[in-house]
Amino acid sequence: MSRTAILALCVYPVLAQQPEHPQDAVDRAHRPIFQPEADRKKAVAALTAEAAGKAATKAGPVAMKSYIDEHVFGRMRRDKVPHAPLSGDEEFARRVWLDAAGRIPEPGELREFLASNDPAKRDKLIDKLVDSPAFVDKWTYYFEDLFRAGSRMGHGLNLFHYWVREWIRLDRPYNEVATDLLAQGGKTSFSFPGGLYFARDFVKAKDDPDAPDGMDLLNVSDTVDEFTVTYSKVLLGLNLACISCHDGKGHLEKVNLYLTGKKREDFYRQAGFYGKTRQVMNWENGGQANTEYTVDDEAPGYDTKAESILRVMRLGGDSKPRFILTGEAPRPGLHERDELARLLTGHIQFSRAFANRIWAELMGFGIVETVDDFDLSRYDPKNPPPAPWTVQPSNPALLDAMAADFQKSNYSFRKLAKRIMKSNAYALSSRFDGEWKDSYANYYSRKFVRPLTAPELHDAITVATARPASYASGDQKVPMVHQMSEPSKAAGELAGFLKIFGQQGRDQMPKRITFTSMQAMVLMQTNVVNDGVLSLKDSRVDRLVKETSSTEALVEELYLSTLSRRPSAAERQVALPAVEKDRRRGAENLQWALINSPEFVFNY
Fold this sequence. Notes:
Layout lengths: L2 H9 L10 H9 L9 H13 L14 H13 L9 H13 L5 H9 L5 H10 L2 H14 L10 H14 L3 H10 L2 E2 L7 H5 L20 H17 L27 H8 L6 E7 L2 E10 L39 H11 L1 H16 L32 H13 L4 H9 L2 H4 L22 E2 L2 H12 L5 E3 L2 E3 L13 H9 L16 H9 L1 H4 L9 H8 L3 H13 L5 H13 L1 H13 L2 H4 E2 L1
Antiparallel strand pairs: 1-3, 2-3, 4-7, 5-6
Helix pairs in contact: 1-2, 1-25, 1-26, 4-16, 5-7, 7-17, 8-9, 10-14, 15-16, 15-17, 19-24, 23-24, 24-25, 24-26, 25-26
């Protein structure tokens, strides 16, 4: 039996009920992931309804394990919104492994979890994975995407990479991490990794200096503006880009109500915290080190009339530092960037923004969506905005509770991740019993399906096929993409694979994955899959064919190692004769088909 036949008949038994060409079945099964994403919540809900389908069991009573459940299920009870049943162990295990570790479970680990009768086994699994080295790998990769740790960091990139790994490994308080990102300085490539976050936003003015000291190589004011927009998005969830060029009034009435009350001068004051900060391009061996900078605080102040390369003409105004959310000035005699870090990390919006961002990663989309565009004038339901505006967060009480909990936990990322993942809101099935309505999405009444990221997909293939690779990461070789410090330097077929499946070059803010038909075709043809499933070099298939005498056991093990579940009766009926006919070729074809199924490329 051919690979496409197994794909159409074994992996898609529902589709196979209709007489159609195998390639048509493949196209139809992948069609939901080809559609462009417009509205995040609507798109995710529609994708989930299509991909996950109906629940086999009805939802029963759900225990309230934490304040998260009280807020989520309490709101559903109040508004009479139904929810999905709790997920089964197979669905839950694969979800947790991908979310915490960025890879699927090894079959032995999965069998051990499934066989356990411990009522606390799910919480124990979460503790194990969140405290594992794989958690450090996955989330280091995530934060390096978020902080845009790419080529613009120059030779300092490896320093930044190991700094991120260490604070995640140690669970360093995130407010301290943010303080380093805002306040560190020095020669960025060698001494102060946090300073690289500011240094990477340099705006080069010219190739050769006119000034004897070379200080005119950079446009300092534009550099400060770029960084002010950057850290406001990432650390506060506020997009100040528009008011960096003009007042909000008369421009943002249909975009952000809060920012209509802000002026360009408010942005100048926020940028003013970096008015004394400059970047000095380093010179080495008689030439420019184009991405090597020394960050110091010797500038005279933010110039509100400075010439701009990126923005409309600056016309002047007050640039005395004032925190945009409170109007508070730095305390006299203290370092202004240190004061910015104190004001920013001490404000509830810092904790809201982080909690919302992690919630979005683990639950499908943010309580405020998009995550870097809060509208604070639409936040409080007790003080609702004027018509036609509506309250922005779907559950502001929950988000505030998570933000307060994050503060009380000493800004612990691990504790926040565990709190969300141990809730029964997180444990709901993606399959829904009954008629799904679009209005249910805001209630998180089911677990939403998400596509695997490029590194998750690659590393899942690596685990499924038991064929670890060897990739360069700094001066080391690593077996997993999630362990790479600079994925943009991936070579050969891996480079194309990552790019096609959505990996960006870390020079722009990360974007959600957009799926195309090209990805389905690449997954069918790439050697990452085609070589991995071959019965060679102690691969998963090679091992199973040699060590498993029972065809039924071989098929079950392939399903467990690839889809993290046992096959259904209908799937066994197709797979068993295909593998019995030619164990080696049949097993290769079966795993190829499973990897090419929509079930493999999504996290349910």
